Amino acid sequence: MNIENQHQPGGGYGGQAVKFFLDEGEQLHILHPAQVIAYRGATANRVDKLMNIKGMYRKRKLVRADFTGPCELAASLPPGISLKAISLSGGSDLLYDFRHLFFYTDHITMESRILSIKNMMITRDAVKMKFSGEGEIGILTQGQVLELELHPVEPLYVEAGCVVAYPESARMELAVYGNHLASQHMRYQWKITGQGSVLVQATGGSRLQQELESGDGIVKRFLREAIPFGGVIIK
Question: Where would I find the beta strands (DSSP E) of the chain?
């Protein structure tokens, strides 16, 4: 299977288009069929069905579109959303949020993993999905995806809302770092150690954009940063 990402020149406010090319016998499963905007191939090569991930994902049934090659299709993504294709091998142990999944190829299997109470409170989800097998999955993100290596002892700090996937065996706890001023103004971080790597999406930036567009003087901005709860008190 080949994938082509179509980006609008110069950025703009339009969405992203993604084209898929399937050879004879290849199978592609898309979990957001409404995003398919064009198709070329035999009509019998698309079959939609209701699927239920073992009743584990909030007990909601999802519609899945199964495509069999030879065929080609195009899907659209909303503005600000990117599609990242990830190749999996037999040793993968990454856990993903199922809502981020856009497609997966044949020979990929899914297993549900129930999170700890602590992780449920932070991620606002009860279940993560572990994918295994040989093939590809496509995940939806809000920015560029980075792969960062873990160390068994030296922790990696990652903003909690930016983690896309992490190893099942990783040790994770909420933390902040730096001096008092740094820890006071940062969002909660996952302190992660272990083997393998984590996938991080480059989200956020809204605060930086507000600062760049703001006409506030340097004194007001300094007071917001230096005074506890200054961002709330000083408008």
Answer: 2-6, 16-22, 27-30, 36-41, 46-51, 62-68, 71-77, 82-88, 94-96, 101-105, 108-114, 127-133, 135-141, 145-149, 156-159, 163-167, 171-175, 189-193, 197-201
> Residue 95: what residue type?
L
Q: What pTM was computed for the model?
A: 0.75
Instruction: Say which DSSP state 106 is in.
Output: T
Q: Residue 70 phi/psi, 5° resolution? A: -85, 135
pLDDT in tens, 44-96: 999 998 876 554 454 455 788 999 999 999 999 988 888 989 988 877 788 88
Q: Tell the burial category of 42 from Cβ atoms under 10 Å away from its Cβ (0-12, 13-18, 19+).
A: exposed
